[in-house]
Every structure is written in structure tokens, then in C-alpha cells.
Amino acid sequence: MSNERPTLTTRQGHPVSDNQSLRSVGERGPATLENYQFLEKITHFDRERIPERVVHARGTGAHGYFEAYGKIGNDPAGKYTRAKVLTQTGVRTPVFVRFSTVIGSKDSPETARDPRGFAVKLKTVDGNWDLVGNNLKIFFIRDAIKFPDMIHAFKPDPVTNRQEPWRFYDFVSQSPETLHMVTWVKSPWGIPANYREMEGAGVNTYKLVNDEGVAHLVKFHWQPKQGVRNLTAAQAAEIQAQDVGHATKDLYDAIDRGDFPEWEFCVQIMADGEHPELDFDPLDDTKRWPEDRFPLLPVGRMVLDRNPDNVFAETEQSAFGTGVLVDGVDFSDDKMLQGRTLSYSDTQRYRVGPNYLQLPINAPQEKARARTNQRDAQMAYYVDDSGANKHINYEPSSLGGLQEAPKPAKDYHQWVEGHLGRYQTTQTSDDYRQAGDRYRTFEDWERDELVANVGGDLKQCPEPIQLRMVWHLWHCDEDYGRRVAEVAGIDLERAKALPPLPGKPAPHERRVGPTYTSGKQETSASVQETASAK
Predict the structure, then answer these.
(1) Is 56 annotated in the active site?
(2) What's this model's pTM, rounded to 2 decimal places?
């Protein structure tokens, strides 16, 4: 049998020499629109399922409002941003939030070990702002071109129609950047007890821009006032035996009885720039910004106080996109953000239709009514015009119609310079360090659960995957690798003897003591109190 493998190509038959990196202007520069390989790959991926969402199919939602404090930490919010939704006080901005699981189908159990989607649509006076994130503050990968492959590996096997551990760990074992997220997901943090007692995070790095045109890098976070509660595998199994939609019921019942869940909206701020003093790239979604250096600064609060009148019309037809920003919030060169900005809205045009923004659940509030020159297409039922001259559906015109808004007095301009090519980040030491730091900061019972989950999974994997995974985990933390090897029955010495992955940098010196602090100990404490999600 020949060991020669077929060459990966595009749908046009072009050989693919780099399937790991978008084309960008320099290592940290923006991605370019002529990324044909990526566009072909991601747009096909967006259309793989209909009408169910390709990812985040199982979900529930609720209405509420957001109120800004007018400050970011101790500073006026205007120091960092000109976004009215974050600077104006005394205003209740309507919101719709959709919570979800990622990998499972529409009728999959809500006890699945899986990241949870946390998507917020803020209907501001300047139009919609969609903050599309997850419950965990990081992600598996840092380049959007890898997203379809990652989801394919995590989804059911196309032959057996089952989620197979060997497929998951095959991808993970070849992608060290995933180790941090795997450590979170395979711990109790991978099964939130419900949606109310769950954190949220924008995950991507954005920018805030003020009236002077000055930008800062920013991470967005939702901190639940109800506290955080997660489940062990045994507790999740007990709940799943009785109810596959416990989290949907929990949220609906809480709002129905007037127990409105609330989150504090916080940001982490960093000066705009490359930050060579850090051992991670702040644009890398697989890394956290240490909260002892970049603290969570309160910005406002969100309350959910109304259940949907109809699940399909509101929750299922709600559509979110990472490119839906308001003035004062801007894009960074985060490669996951740039790829998601195309993919999310493209998926909704396919899944719901090109006029999905005319649906009431997605339309901006009346003060920011949509007025465009876009016309027709499937399911159009009104025209986005100004009511002035209906003959004019173009711009500029001397006969009426729409006109451009006034430009900001000082806009943000980013200087971009670099060689166009495919780049992988060179700041990779934290691929292992942050995963190891997270392992060491877990409580003992969380560590025990993590080791049991990963070790149990690896028992079902082929030996090459077992050995490589233990090699990775040992480089994150010696105790982490040793304990998983013991549970899975893997020869630790054989694993340690493996060479580094071809084409991947060798791990930096292993950390065997705490190096990461969040400013406060994060725990799943209340899982010890009860096996049910109240």
C-alpha cells in the first residue's frame, strides 16, 4: 500500500500549499479580499446545512435591555470610545440574546460538553451592534481558514454519523494552539449548568475609537450577577436522563417568574499596537489577556426580562454578524474576526434569505430605521427607502434620494504596511504556557474531572494520537501529561520521546508553577451543592 497521499486542492483543482493561514499584509496585518482559497472554502462551509444553522443550531433566546454606566473603570467612557451606547447614561438600549451550543443539531441535549454561544444584538440609536461570542473567553484556533476543518473534525463522522473522540483529538494533536481551549472544555467549564449562571465573551479582539480618532484594543466580557455554575460529567448525565432541554427551561421559567438574569458588561483595554513585550499576540483568540495586567473594567449592565412570543419568528430567525458594529467600535486585524465577519452574515443570507434584516427580530429600532438603496431579492416585503423620491435607488443624485451621513471630525486611520503572503503567528510560547497555567489554577476537583475526561477520551483513540496528545499535555504541565497517561494507559516515556511536530515550533521551557493570575480565582464552586440545574 502506497504511503503517498493525494494533494489537497481548491474546488477549481488548484493545489493548496498552505491551508493554515489567510493571506494578509504582514504577519499581523489585515486579511485581503482576494483570499480566493478562503472565500471558496468558507462560503461553501456556510451552505453545508439548510435551514438549520451549521453551528449553534440548538439555542434559546430572550429580550431585555442594556444600560451604560458612562464610565470605563474610573474614566469617562468617552476617553476610549464615541459609541453612544457606551457613553450615554439613562438610556435603556433594547437587546435580544441568543444562547446556544455549538456542535450539536437542533434537538441535541443542552448538557453536551461544548462551548456555549452568547450572541447579543443591541438595537442602539445608531443602528444594530451584534456582539457574537461564547461563554469561554478564548477559542480553539486563531486563523479563520481553519474553521471549516475544525468543525468537520468535531462534528459527526460522515460515515458513522457519530462524534468520534479520535477525530477530535486527531485535529487537536496536530494543532497545539487548541490546547488552551481543550483544557477549558474538557474541565467542568465545558458544561455550564445553565445559561443564566454562565459568563459571556466577545472572544475576538476589537478596537474602541474616541472622538479624537484614537484607538485602543479591547476585549468584551459579560459577567453574570447570578454567579457561575458548571457541571461534572456525572451531573450532566443525571440531568440528561430526564431532560435534554434543561437550560432552555431554566431561562424561560426564571424570566416568567420575574427572576430576571443580569450581567455586568466589562472590557479589557490595551494600547493599540504590536506589544512585543508580551509573550502572546493580543490578536490571538486562543489566548487570554491576563486580568492582573489588563483588568476587567465595568461599562454597563444587561438585564433579560421578556421571553419571546414565538420561538421560530424570534429565536430561530434571529441573525447575528461580527461585522455589525456601531461608530466608536471598530475591527482589529484579528484573523478570526476578519473571517467571521464575512462568514456569519453570509450564512444568514443563505439560511434565512437576503432580506433577513427586514424581519422584526433583526431590524434596527425605529430611531435608526434602515434606509438603503438595496432592492428586491427573495422575500422582500418592504423597501428600505426614505419615503422621499421612490424613483431614486442610487447615490449620488441631484434629484433627491438618500445622502451620506456627516463624517466624524477626526476618524481613525490605521497605517498598514507589509509583504502580502500567508503567515502564522510567531508568538506561540503560550500555546503551552497558558494551557498549563490554567491546569494549575483549577481547583483539585476540576483538575480531577479534566484528567478523567481527557484520559477517558484518549482510550478510544489510535496509539499515534494518544502519544502525541500526552506529549502536548506534558509540555503544558508535567503533572497534566503524567496523570492523563496513567488514566488512558499510555506509555509516558514513549510519548516524551516524540520529536516536535513537523513545521511547528518546539514548546518553550515547561512551566511547573503558577504564572497566570486572573485577579480573582475563577471556580465552578456551586456544582458541589447539587446535581441539578436549578
Answers:
(1) yes
(2) 0.88
